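Hi R.,

Here's the chain you asked about this morning:
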Amino acid sequence: MRVRDVLTHKGTSVVTVRPDATCRELLAILARNNIGAVVVSSDGSTVTGIVSERDVVRHLHDRGAAILDGPVSQLATLVVATCGPEDPSTSCARR
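And here is the predicted structure, written out as tokens:
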């Protein structure tokens, strides 16, 4: 199975959040879209990073509730591995 096959089934829409959005705003986006992660982007198309529910939980555990009012950029993974539509889904999973 190739990435394009997954996208055909799941769709190609990408939800983004601004790096300066608060963690509270991020949580609202995740809940509203029923998703577990979003792409961090200042312009809606350039990938700055990615942030997930897991990132929020880990930072809450380490630093407490104060992170909720801080920027998403402090939680995000800034080095993002990408793949193309013709790549096998197994190779993407390994990355």
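One quick note: The helical segments are 3-10, 23-33, 53-63, 89-94.

Cheers,
M.
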